[in-house]
Amino acid sequence: MKELEPLGPHFGAIVHGVDLAGASDAVLADVRAALVDRKVLFFRDQLLDDDGQVALGRRIGELTASHPVVGGVDAAHPEVYALDSADNGFADVWHTDVTFMKRPPLGSILRAVVLPPSGGDTQWADAQLAYESLSAPVRRLADQLTAVHDGNREFGYYLAQRRGGKGNEWDGEVVTQLTPVEHPVVRVHPETGRPGIFVNPGFTSHIVGVSEFESRGILDLLYAHLTKPEHIVRHRWRPGDVAMWDNRSTSHYANRDYGDQRRVMHRITLRGDVPVGPAA
């Protein structure tokens, strides 16, 4: 890569001088390494369409379906998930993509398609830095905990009513129901060994083995800490922008501050692994 412009001491970077559509294998290997290190990368002035985005994803990892429940943007691109504000395609809650499945995505690649005149920024939180900046007693508590992630609150109605109870194939099985899954509250990154907070307001329903009151208190503490300003980078989109992020070490939030203007983003996701906690 020609130049990596850090957005903070540990988190986020703008990558200059890389044409994602024509990048060599060596350059994409550098991008992949930078993704793990910086967690979220931004590329300006890219000339990608849906075909190019899918081809790029296949060179970086193994693509999943667009989403366990939501269909692809069209029949030719079942891997592309369209987030269209004209069809309730919002993401204005802190979340990590698809944690309600046993094997959440490794990462995501997001492309700006239609942007409002202003607003619609996206923010990312560094889950590893957030974990490391917790006090030692709270880290020890979090290390021991398991949480339930439930996609029904966000996508249960969509699966039942708009897809007739039949979603996409995910990990070799067609999704017909969104059975809640358990993941460690602290996830150890499979490539770096660094632990990070792995709960999110979008899909985490509760902590296992504690009271409802205790669960709410623990989760609220972790959410507030995760989204402290010093753990966050914010991206102001412009045409031609592409973002990549490591889904195993981040959460994100798309600002819904553009009124009735339209915002369309196309996302693909890379197949991940089963989250593992410190106890393992």
From TrEMBL:
GO molecular function: dioxygenase activity
Cofactor: Fe(2+)
Coiled coil: none
Keyword Iron: yes
SUPFAM superfamilies: Clavaminate synthase-like
TauD/TfdA-like domain sequence ranges: 4-269
Protein keywords: Dioxygenase, Iron, Metal-binding, Oxidoreductase
Family note: Belongs to the TfdA dioxygenase family.
Protein name: Taurine dioxygenase
Organism: Paractinoplanes durhamensis
